[in-house]
Amino acid sequence: MSVCAVILAAGEGTQLRPLTLRKPKSLCPVGNITLLDRSLARLADYGLRGPRQIAVNACHLADQVVAAVAGRAYLSVESPPPLGTSGGVAKLRDWIAGRGVLVCNADGYLADNASPGNASVDVCSADLISGWDGRTVRLLVAPATPDRAGEFGNPRRWRFAGMSLLPWETVRDLPRTASGLVSTVWRPAEANGLLELVPYHGRYIDCGTPADYLAANLLAAKLAADGDGNLVHPTATVQGRVQRSVVGASAIVHGDLTGSVVWSNGYVETGEHLCDAIRAAPDVTVRTRD
What we know:
By secondary structure, the chain is α/β, with parallel strands linked by helices. 20% of the residues lie in helices and 29% in strands. The strands form six sheets. A seven-stranded mixed β-sheet has the order 5-4-1-6-9-8-10, with helices on both faces. Strands 12-15-18-21-22 form a five-stranded mixed β-sheet.
């Protein structure tokens, strides 16, 4: 069964504002690597590369996504508002052209049971493609947690972990209207006994809120090669005290950081202490705790 991939990167990321007023969610960095680049790295691990095998959809701040893709994938640009997870796949029907589709949410951070030194790329070890019969819908799922209720299984002890594999027969009939895969594909497949759950036993974080986005960055920092809990880009200037934090390219940190993220070209002035915060720009700071 021939398989292609679609990275969903069109959403407005409203829960991640004001960060997503500057960048689309797919281009927000986790551990100084954009979520889009992490998705492309995961697909490369499956042997999927280039515009014949990978498509990326875009809508919110689409020009930034187009520039970031730079020929590495086929582009599907939607007119606002975005078509949703199902409509976005349906719009690519002619490009998919009879293949199965591995659909990846660009906002998912997957970190295998890694050790320090493996923070640069997150690779999904669970194999969604191997042994697939081309008929079932497969979902990558992570165990439910006290703060994240289960969505699938009987009992419902699993939650979606950002990737699904769809047969062509399902994609072929999707409406090209704003809709979600939950209602158009996953629930019908579950009702008909055609839903397969593939457990992912690493750490999955949906970077949909500032708190979860910060958590993903701090996990990347924990796995950083230097082992001190920080992930500092070589071009950054750091003079203050930095603990469990991520500092982007060309950022300047004169103050102190604790459990925080400073984006590329960010600035933290002398005497300032950022704690549990994201500094996206001099005038954009998101604090995840009061």
